[in-house]
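Newbie here. two chains, one complex. Structure please?
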Amino acid sequence: MLVGIKDNFSTHIGPDDAELTTYYQAPMNATVVSLIEDGGGTVVGKTNLDEYGMGSMTTFSIHGQTKMPQGVGESRIFTSPGGSSDTGGSVRLPAAWCGIVGFKPSYGQCSRYGLLAFASSLDTVGILSKTVEDARKVYRTISKPDQLDMTCLSENFRDEMARLIRQSGRQISAGSLPLDGIAIGIPQEYYVHELDDDIIRVWKETANNLAQLGAEIRPISLPHTKYALSVYYILAPAEASSNLARYDGVRYGKLAQTLDPKDCEVYKIAAKTRSENFGPEVQRRIFIGTHSLTAGTYEGYFLKAQKLRRLIQKDFDTAFNLPNLLATENNPGSAVYNKDGGVDAILMPTSVTAAPEIPTSPSSDLEAKNKDPTAAYVNDIMTVPASLAGLPAISIPAGLSSSNGLPLSLQLVGQFGDDDLVLDIARHIHNIYQSP
Amino acid sequence: MRYQSQFIVHSHTSPPSFITNVQTQTIPLRNYRSLSTDKNTETSRKVYYDSKGQEWYATIGLEIHAQISSPQKLFSGCRTDWDKEPNTNIFPQDIGIPGTLPVLNPDCIKKAVSTILALSGEVQLKSSFDRKHYFYPDQPLGYQITQHYEPIGLGGQLVLNEQDYASYSGEGKNTRNAPKGRIVRIKQVQLEQDTAKSFHDIVPNKVLIDFNRAGIGLMEIVTEPDLTSGEEAGIFLSKIRDLLQTIKASNAQMEQGSLRCDVNVSVFSPTSDNPRYNQVNTAVRCELKNMNSIKAVVAATEREIKRHIDVIENGPERDNQLVQETRGYNVKDNETFRIRAKEQAQDYRYMPEPDVPEIVLDDAIISRVRAELPELPDQKLERLMTQYGLKLEDAQTMMDVTGCTEFFEKVMRITKNRESSMAVVPWITSELFGYMKFDTSSPSATKVGFEDLKITPAQLASIVDDLKSNKLTSAMAKKVLQKIVLEQNKGLASEIAQQNGWTVISDDSEDLRKMCEKLISNNPKEASKFKKGSNRVLGFFVGQVMKETKGQAKPQVVSRIFTELLSK
C-alpha cells in the first residue's frame, strides 16, 4: 500500500513543515509511521496541512492551498489521503469535501508519539482513504499500544474493551439482513438551520437505506451538543498555546536576531521569534488559549469548558447501549449507559455544506478573516462533539450534490472503543452509494 | 554591615549592653496561637531587637527542592548521571523535540511516597500533573510539568527535638533557653521536573545551557511557616537532608544542587504600633532564593530578618517600604538583594497535563513502600542509645558517618563484651575515624570513606575482646589495627599478634619483677623521689619497662609492681 503522511508527523524523510521548524529534521519516526512501514506500507511522501494543523482547508499552510483532485472544482479545497491527524475534524472534513473516507479512531487507539502536538487531549491519528476496507487495513496496522505515549491504550485495556464488546452479545450480519439487531441513532440537535438541503436529503435517504438493511433507526437527544463548538474553541487553543510554547527558537528552528541590547532579555527574544515566525491563525489561537488559561479567566472559561466536555461525553454515554470503559475506569460506578434502549452507532452529517470555495484573492480572505475570524470555525460544528468525547467517527461519501455536483458525506459515530463496529456499518453505507 | 548600627540583634557572640540575659524567651503559645501548631503547647522563639529594644519574632517557611535519586529522569528513560559532559545526557523528550511525549518513571513515585511516609504525611490515592508555563531558555517545553492542583502528598511533619538543637554546630549552639523542640508541619509534597542549567558567566554576553539536568525528577517539599530563626531553618534542613539520604530518596547535597531551598521570611512584633506588623498574617513576606549551602541559608535568613526589622523601623523616612519580593544572597557582603518584585511575578497559567494520566495508588502499594522504609534517623538514634547505652554524642557522631552504625552494630553482635559498648565505641570514633580521609570537595570538611576501610566487624571485635581478656595491651591493639587497615591483613587480632611475636608478659612473670627491681637499683635518685612522695616518677619507671618489653607488658601491672617495690 502506498501511503502519504501528513506533514505534522515526524519522519526521517523530510522536515516537518511549519515556519518555526523550517530547519528542523526530526530525529525519529512517529510510531504510526514505523508501524505502517513495518506492516509493508510504503511512505511515498508528506502532505500539506495548515500550520500546526490549525484549520481544515490548508488556508494557513506555508506551502499554499491544496485544491480538489476532482475536475469539478479547481477552486475547492483538498487534503491528500494517508496517515493524518484529527483534532476537531481535520480528517473527517477534508474527506467529506473530497468524497473519500476519513476515519478518526477512538482517542488512544493509535500512538501520538511523533505527531506534532496541537491539542493533546483531542489529537487523534486519523486515516484518509478511498474505501472503508483500506481505512480498516491501516487502522489495524497502527492501532497498537505504545510505551512512548502514556495516553495510548494499554494491552490490558484493549483486552478489557474486547471482553466488554463480546459480552454485549452484539453480532453484525448474524440475522437474515446484514444490520439485524443494530440500532442507529439520529440526534435531533444536529438538525441545525445552517444545514444544506442536499445534506438533509442524503441523511434521511441513508437512514432509510440502513433501515432496509435491518437496522433500527431511533431518534436520540444529545442536549449538550450546542456547547460543543464553544467548548472546543476554548480547550483546543488553550492546549495549543501550551504545546506551542516549546517553539522559542532556542533548540531548533529560526531564532530572531536582535541587535538592540535593550531587547536582549530572554523573554523578548522569545516573543520576537514567535511573532516573526508563527502565522496569523496560529497566533490568534495562542492568544485565545493564553487568555483562557490566565488567572481570573481560567475558572470561567477553561474549567467550565472542561465540565461541559464531561457533560457532552455523558450525553453520548447515555445514548449508547455499550458502557464507556474509559469513564468506568476513571470514575468507577459512574458509568451511564442505556443497556436496552441505547443505540450502537449515531448517524449525522460530517459538515453543514459541501466543500467551500477558496476566496478569490488572498487579500479578500484576509479581510474576511479580520472581519470575523471565527466564521470558519462553524465548519467544525458537526465534528467536534466526537472529538471532545474521544469517540470513533468516520466520514463516508454519500453521493453528490444535486445543485453543483460536489461530494456529500455523512458521519457515523460509535461508543469509545467500538471502532470495529463503526467501520462495519460504514462499509454498508459506502456500499449503498458505490453501487446505485 | 550597613544596618548594624541601626538595630541590634541579640546573639551569643555580641550581647547588646541593654539586654543582659535574654537569648531566647519562652512564650506560652496560647498568647500567639496563630504562630504555630497547636501541638506546640509551649516553645521558645529567638527574639530579635530593634534599636529601641522592642522585641521582634521571625516567621519562616521553606520550599525545598530535592532531586530524586532515580537512575532515570522523571518523564524520559534518560539516565540521571550528573558527571556527564554538558548536553550529552539528553533524550528527545528532555529538550522538547516536537512529537515527543512524557512517560512517567514509577521509581520517582515510589521515592516520593517514601518521603511522604517518612514525614508522616498523607499519600494521596489520586494525584495528577499540571503544566506551569513560563518562557526561559532553560525550560525546554515552555512549561514545567508539576503538581499544582492535586499534589501526591498532603500534610505531615518533621519534629525538631532537643538532640537536633544540641547537634547543631553553627551559631546558636548551646544557647541558653534554646528551644526544647519544635513541630514543623509539612504542607505538601509534589513531584516536578528539573530545568536545564544556565551559565551566565562563562562566555560574555552569552547564556550557555546544559540540558543534562532538564527533566530530572524533583520533589518539592513545602513547610508551613513554623520556623522561627535562621539557625532553626538550618537545623530543619540538616534533618530533612539526613532523612532523605537515609530513605535513599535523594542525595540531598546542597553544594551539588541536589537539595535547594527557598526561604520565606517575615517578621512581627506583638507590641508593635504598626498594625501591619503586630501580627503574623499581615506582615510583608520576602522569598530568598539560590543559596547553595545550609550555612548560607542560615546566614541569609538571619540577614533578611534583620533587614526587615530595620526597614520597618526606618523605612518610611528612607522611602524604603518593605515590599513583597524575591531576593538573593551575596555571601561575600552578607547582604540580600532584590531579584524581582512581586508585581513582576508571573502568571503561570496552570493547566492540567493532558499527556500524563493521573497517578492512582492503592493502600497495598503504600503499605509495601512503608514496609520497605529503613529505620528513620530519630528512631535509630533512640534505639542506639537505649539498646547499647550509647551517649547521645557518640550515637550522633557515628550516625553522621555513612555505614558506621551498621559496622558498630555488627561488632556488637560478634564481641564477647556485649554489655559494654564503651569498650567498642572509642575504637571506632577515635581509632578508625583517624584512618578516614577528609572530603576536600565539601566546604563542611566531612570525613568520607568509612566504608572503604579494610576492616571487618569480626576483626575489630577480636581486638576489643583480646584487649579485654588481656591477650593484648592497648599499644599492641593499636598496632594490630594498623596492620589491618594499612597493610590489609585479613587475620584476627590473635593471629596478627602471633605473626608479629606480640605476646603479653603475664602479670606474675618473674622476669617482669626482676626487670623492675633492676631498674630501681639502677636509678636510685628517681626511687628516692617516689619515697619522698612524687607519684610522677612512677610514670618514668613504667615507661622504661614498656620500652624494654616493646609494649608487651601491661602498664597497669607494671605500675602495681613498682608501687609495691618502691613502697617497701
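Moderator note: Residues 70-82 of chain A have pLDDT under 50 and may be disordered. The longest strand of chain A covers residues 393-400. Thread marked as resolved.
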